[in-house]
Amino acid sequence: MKLFLSRFFLTCSLFFLTYTPTFAQQSFVDASILTDFNDALKLYNSKAYAPALKIFGAVAKTAANNTVVKSDASYYEAMCAIKLNKTDADKKVLKFVAENPTSIKKNKAYFNVGNYYFANKKAAYSLKWFQKVIPEQLSKENKKELDFKMGYALLKTNHYKLAKERFLPLINDGKYGNDARYYYGYLAYKLEDYAVAESTLREIADNDSYKAEISYYLLDISFKAGRFNRCVSVGLKLLATANRRESPNISKIIGESYFNLQKYQEAIPYLKAYRGKRGKWNNTDFYQLGYAYYKQNDFKNAINNFNKILDEKNSVSQNAYYHLAECYLNSEKKTEALSAFKAASEMDFDLKIKEDSALNYAKLSYEEGNPFKDVAVVLQEYLKAYPKSKAYDEINNLIVSSFLHQQHYLGALEYLEKNKSKNNNKLHLEVSLYRGIQLYRSKKIKEALPFFTSAKKTSNSNISLRARYWEAEAQYQLGNNEESLANFMRLKTVLKNNNDPEFLELNYTIGYNYFKLKKYAKAIPFFEATTKQNSIESEVLEDTYIRLGDSYFATSAYENAIISYQKVIANKGIGADYAQYQIGMSYGFTDQNEAKIAALNKVISTYKLSSLKDDALYQLGNTYSKINKNAEAHIAYSSLIEKHDKSIFIAKTLIRQGLLYYNDGENDKALEKYQQIVRLFPNSPEAFEAVANARNIYIDNDNVGDYVTWIKGLKFINITNSELDNTTFAAAEKKYLNTTDQEKIIASLQGYTTGFPEGIHALKANFYLAETLYKQALFDQAIPSYSMVLNEAQSDFSEASLNKLSQIYLFKKELDNAIPLLKRLEQEANSPTNILYAESNLMQGYYKTRSYGLAMEYAKKILAREKLDKVLKNDAQIIIARSAFKNEDFQTAKAYYAEVTKNATGALKAESLYYNAFFKNKEKAYESSNKIVQKLIADYSAYKYWGVKSYIIMAKNYDGLEDAYQATYVLENIIENFKEFDDVIVEAQTTLDKIKANEAKINRSVKQEEEIPTEEKTKN
What is the Cα–Cα distance from 26 to 178, expressed in whole angstroms? Predict the structure, then answer.
């Protein structure tokens, strides 16, 4: 709206310039006061308001009450204050009125103040004072002036109806007529009274003062009346002469007119030329341009406009999201289409669009996966909302398929249970197998077993066979070897094709069951059969040769054992050092001592990192001793003591050396060895043996007194109680070795350890007791006995105790207690399996205690091993990836997550895909990142945390691709649907706020969190 009021702003002081006070009737007024008053009046008329204000104020104070001069002085004092824009001007006027309620100047005062504010373009202030004026007390011209100025002030303060009433009487006035007619027509336009507006404005349309504005209003009125062809023709003419300020709005009307005439190609350039209000478009503006592009099949530009429509739910946004979804489909962006269809399906403005969008949303959820709801739930919700849909059967069939596709087997079982039918019952048994395998692979073997048992009942022979196989496999893993073996053997009798990949390890596992049951002769043929199978993994084949060798070894078939062990060595398998050691032992049992020595020397020289080097040295010393090569025996024993000071063979080696020295007549050296044993390994079996052997030396040396003195200083020797000690332990040990009643074993062993806390057999008794308690899962009771064994010097029981006690603390999640034991086990263990167990759990323990550097160190140590088990390899890789990420070493993290992705399954696969998407986003490879997220959602939706977290990455990708709709849609759905993931919600909200802040810069329909009102912003 243009303003045409400059000439009216100049009339506000007429009352002041023509007024002259008289005081003829009040001759008693002090002459000096009157003189001051007249001087002030001259200053006032000369616009010297500041000195006039001062004098008028003084006169008002000194003049007598109820005199005209006092009243007039107060009046002019107030007028001066108004002129000078004093903060107390309003109060002075009100004071004058209060003190002179009958003054004829009261009405003039109100009018003059209103005029003053009006002249200074303060419409709201002027209106306040104009409303106090009594129009009937004004002259005819002043009344017209009041109506006009009040009308304008009401217009400026958005009181359109009241303003219109003020202008109406003036539209034919000679002075105010044209301006009043313009404002009257404009107000009718604003009040959407287009007929009155059009007829009124046309009367002055040729007036040069109003022509440009009126032409636009008439054009807009024609548009609102639906005269689109006229709008185009008139608008194009106006556009030819319009200035830069006018042309965008005229272009908008032309563009929308073409749009409504379905001339979309012609509409596009004019819609684009619109600048918006205050430089911002709204959602309707984006919709119209987007739809125009859509109708031209320009889907890219259509998407770029539709996706800026945010924060509103109305028919425009429903249509926009529906067409946006179609654009995405035509651009082969199904995941993006899914979210747009969902948004359209949640609005009720067009029910046909709503239903069609819901159907497409359900189908796309099945095809692409859905991050916010289980696909099956989405499909079921569609059927519930539209039970008479023509697509009912199609969607119904997709429900079970969706559960299976997403590996959400538990959900499938629950659905099938609720919707029973003959076919569904059959499917229920099949899905039970899949659920069991899923639990098994998640290491929840006990929970998996009932599902395999259930699945066996199916009439589908293939499913039944697989269920029987997995049931037996689960029983094996749970240590139920008898049951596992029986089931495997029954399966083998009915299994026709043993080459099925799932059954490849059948012979291997049967052999292992026999091996675990110590039925070595029966294990041999199954291990032999495994070695002849094709497609057996190399790790399994190598382990088979080792266990085949062990089985032959256990049955004294040493030549066959050697052949099996040699194959392991030839393949350079992970157990090659063990195989080499066993070859040596096999030669020993066939009295081929030289061959045994050669084999044991190979263990020492070839396998530098072998944990069996101390075993080999010990056996080497024993073998040299056996063939009377005592010097060589001493060299082997000394090497063991010097290089392997944590070995369990130290005490035994010292005993052996003592015996060698004794047999060679070197009693002093022998006694030194025995005393060393007692000092280093008190309370051990070797210590008691050393005491007995030393006794013989003291007797030989005729030095029994020294023996008695020495033995009295040994706390673990009690000569008088030794017989009772031996008898009590013998009874307890007999129960341990020969009885199955665990309660009796525990009672007997506890009787010994309580009665003889430092007894001869305390070490062995505590170990036996701990093992029994462990088997009964009485872990807290087992801890003291294992700890006692480990607090003593290293013994035959140390390694097993370290293993079991560390397992207890790991089970109890007491990592601070477990880690020192695992470190000690790593250093002291002879078994490669125990070393690997220690290293793998140290890796996990350090990660859980946030010692990421140490976690990576152990993970790399594990990966350095040859022919590593796949599961452990994956564990090590994921620990490095996670630790590197925590340490912000993103290059290392990226490399290892890429490796993890290759072989990972389940939750680990979902995690690795998330981080791969994360790194792609950091590289600004937004499309590639989104493809990874889509795969994660489609194939691993059961792992909800990673799916939801990955969708924040997708939102950031969309933001990078300038698709604000998709970005905000994804984030808003995360915030609404996944409040259980606090960390994800915080990240989603932060990201959403940032995106909306950016979008609010171009779209005035976008609402920001805690937006400051316009007035408040202005004040600040």
Answer: 48
